[in-house]
C-alpha cells in the first residue's frame, strides 16, 4: 500500500497533473487486452529519463512495485499492476528524437505510437517493418518489451531485428545503455536482445535506437479465395518451401471472413472456407512478376479465385480490414481468448486441422486467423467467461493446442509473449535449467523484485 508520504514524493517528480489517483482514472489503467482487471494505486506519466530515474530511486528505496505500460494493448496482463503499486505509463514520453537518413536509424522515446513512427519514416523513404495488428495504438516501448511481430514477419522478422540499442533505467534508478547506432556491434553481452521481449520485467526502456530499411518502392496485395481451408494451409506451406518470400501471408477462416464482412462490408466472399491475404513488395518489375507467380501458385493449389488489388486505396482497405479482424470477431461473444501457439510453417496445414478438431471435440467455437507464413496461429476462442462449464472446456482446448504445438517442435507464443496468460505452460517448454537461469537474470537486474512483479516467471495460476 502506497503511503501518503511516498505518493507525495512520487507526485513531486512528475507534478500532480501527471500523477493519477482517482478511482475513475485508475480504472482506465486496470485493463489490457487480456481478460483481467487489476486497479493500480497510482499511474505516473513521466516525460523524461531523469524523471524515470527519480521515480525508480524512490520506488527502490521504499519498496514500491512498478509496472511499465505503453498503450495497454498487450494480451497477457503484462502492463497491469498485478501485485499493486504504481503503473508507469509512457504515452506522454513520445518524441521522435532523431531520424538519421545517412546511416538509416532513428532514435525514439518509448511512447511513440508504432503507426505514427511508420508514417514519419516512410515520408522520408525509410521503413520500419514490424507491423502488429495493434500498430495504430501500440507503442514502440511496448513493441520492444514484447518483441512484437505482426503481419510482415514472414519477410522482415520481428521488432528485435530492428533494434540497434536501448537506454533503460534499472529498478535501482541507474541508467544503462546497450548497443550503438552502428550496423554491427559485438561488444560484450547483447543486452539489447535480452531486453527485447523481456516483458517489462528487467528494466524500463526510455530510449530506442531503431534500425531502418529503405522503403520498398511498391507493393501489391493479393486475395486468394478457397473452398477448402486445407488447401489454403497447404498453399502457405508450399509457397514458403518454394522460396517465394511474400511480405505478408495471412490466413482467415470463414468465421473471421463473416465477422469482417458484417463489420466492414468489403465484399469478402461469404461462401469461402478461407482467404489468404498476401503482399508482395519491392521494385515495380519484381512486384509485377511476383504477383503473377503467387497468383498462379495459389490457383494451382486449390484457390477458386485470386484477386489482385488495383490501387493503394484498395491495398489499404484490405489491410485495415485484416487489422480489424480481432475486434470484429470479438463482437460475436462476450469473451474472446487469443491463442498464439506457433509451429514450423511446413506443419501449418496439419496444425489448422488439429485446431479445428480440438475446437469441435471440446465443443468450443474457434475462429482461425494466422500470420500463416510464420506458422503463427491465432486461434480466437469465442466464449463467455461467466459460464464456468464453458470455460473449463475452453481451458482444455487451449491446453491441447499448446501441447500439440510443443509436440511438433513449436512454441507457446510466437509474438504475444507469456504474461500471466501463459505462465502456467512455461515448464512445458522450458527446462528447469533454463527457468533457473531466467530467474537468475531477473534477480541480477531487479534484486528487490519491484519491477513488474507477478509476471511470467513468478505467476502461478
Ligand atoms: C487487436 C490486437 C492485435 C494485436 N496484434 C499483434 C500482432 O500482430 N503482433 C504482436 O506481436 N502483438 C500483437 N498484439 C499484442 C500487443 O499489441 C503488442 O504486444 C504490443 O507491442 C504492445 O504494445 P503496448 O504499447 O500496448 O504495450 P503494453 O500492453 O502497454 O505493455 C506490454 C508489455 O510491455 C511492457 N512495457 C511497455 N512499455 C515499456 C517500457 N517503456 N519499458 C519496459 N517495459 C515496457 C509492459 O510492462 C508489458 O509487460 C495485438 C494486440 C491487440 C489488442
Number of strands: 18
* Ends apart, CA distance between termini: 23 Å
Proportion in helices: 25-40%
Shape descriptor: globular
Strand content: 15-25%
Q: Could you tell me the radius of gyration in angstroms?
A: 22 Å
Going by CATH, the architecture of the largest domain would be 2-Layer Sandwich
CATH class of the largest domain: Alpha Beta
Judged by helices, strands and strand pairing, the structural class is: alpha+beta
Bound molecules: flavin-adenine dinucleotide
Give the CATH topology of the largest domain: Uridine Diphospho-n-acetylenolpyruvylglucosamine Reductase, domain 3
Number of domains: 4
Number of helices: 16
Mean pLDDT: 95
- The low-pLDDT segments are none
Which oligomerization state do the chains in this entry correspond to?
A: single chain
Report the sheet with the most strands, covering strand number, pairing sense and barrel closure.
Answer: 7 strands, antiparallel
Strand order of the largest sheet: 15-12-14-13-17-18-16
Amino acid at each position: 500500500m502506497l503511503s501518503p508520504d511516498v505518493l507525495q514524493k512520487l507526485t513531486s517528480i512528475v507534478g500532480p497533473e501527471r500523477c493519477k489517483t482517482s478511482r475513475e482514472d485508475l480504472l482506465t489503467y486496470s485493463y489490457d487486452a487480456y481478460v483481467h482487471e487489476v486497479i493500480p494505486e497510482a499511474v505516473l506519466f513521466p516525460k523524461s529519463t531523469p524523471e524515470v530515474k527519480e521515480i525508480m530511486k524512490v520506488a527502490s528505496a521504499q519498496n514500491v512495485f512498478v509496472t511499465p505500460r505503453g498503450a495497454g494493448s498487450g494480451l497477457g496482463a503484462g502492463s497491469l499492476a498485478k501485485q499493486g503499486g504504481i503503473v508507469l505509463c509512457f504515452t506522454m514520453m513520445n518524441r521522435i528524437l532523431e531520424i538519421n537518413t545517412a546511416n538509416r536509424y532513428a532514435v525514439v522515446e518509448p511512447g511513440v505510437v508504432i503507426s505514427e513512427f511508420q508514417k514519419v519514416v516512410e515520408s522520408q523513404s525509410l521503413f520500419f517493418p514490424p507491423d502488429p495488428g495493434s500498430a495504430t495504438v501500440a507503442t514502440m516501448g511496448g513493441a520492444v518489451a514484447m518483441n512484437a511481430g505482426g503481419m510482415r514477419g514472414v519477410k522482415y522478422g520481428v521488432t528485435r531485428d530492428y533494434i540497434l540499442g536501448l537506454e533503460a533505467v534499472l529498478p535501482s534508478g541507474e541508467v544503462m545503455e546497450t548497443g550503438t547506432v552502428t550496423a554491427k556491434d559485438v561488444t560484450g553481452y547483447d543486452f539489447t536482445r535480452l531486453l527485447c521481449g523481456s516483458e517489462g520485467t528487467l528494466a524500463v526502456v526510455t530510449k530506442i535506437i531503431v534500425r531502418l530499411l529503405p522503403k520498398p518502392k511498391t507493393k501489391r496485395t493479393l486475395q486468394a479465395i478457397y473452398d477448402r481451408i486445407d488447401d489454403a494451409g497447404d498453399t502457405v506451406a508450399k509457397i514458403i518451401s518454394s522460396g517465394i518470400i511474400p511480405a505478408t501471408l495471412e490466413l482467415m477462416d470463414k468465421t473471421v471472413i463473416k465477422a469482417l464482412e458484417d463489420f466492414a462490408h468489403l465484399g469478402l466472399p461469404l461462401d469461402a472456407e478461407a482467404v489468404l491475404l498476401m503482399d508482395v513488395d519491392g521494385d515495380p518489375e519484381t512486384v509485377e512478376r511476383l504477383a503473377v507467380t503467387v497468383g498462379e501458385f495459389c490457383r494451382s493449389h486449390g484457390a477458386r479465385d485470386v484477386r489482385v488489388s488495383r490501387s493503394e486505396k484498395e491495398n489499404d482497405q484490405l489491410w485495415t480490414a485484416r487489422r480489424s479482424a480481432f475486434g470484429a470477431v470479438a463482437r460475436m461473444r462476450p469473451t474472446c481468448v487469443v491463442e498464439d501457439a506457433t509451429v514450423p510453417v511446413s506443419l501449418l496445414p496439419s496444425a489448422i486441422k488439429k485446431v479445428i478438431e480440438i475446437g469441435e471435440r471440446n465443443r468450443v467455437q474457434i475462429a482461425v486467423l494466422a500470420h500463416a507464413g510464420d506458422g503463427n496461429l491465432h486461434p480466437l476462442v469465442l466464449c463467455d467467461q461467466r459460464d464456468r462449464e464453458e470455460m473449463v472446456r475452453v481451458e482444455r482446448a487451449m491446453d491441447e493446442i499448446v501441447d500439440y504445438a510443443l509436440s511438433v517442435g513449436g512454441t507457446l507464443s510466437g509474438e504475444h509473449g507469456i504474461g500471466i496468460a501463459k505462465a502456467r505452460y512455461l515448464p512445458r517448454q522450458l527446462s528447469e535449467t533454463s527457468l533457473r537461469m531466467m530467474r537468475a537474470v531477473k534477480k541480477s537486474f531487479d534484486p528487490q523484485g519491484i519491477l513488474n512483479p507477478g509476471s511470467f516467471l513468478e505467476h502461478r495460476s
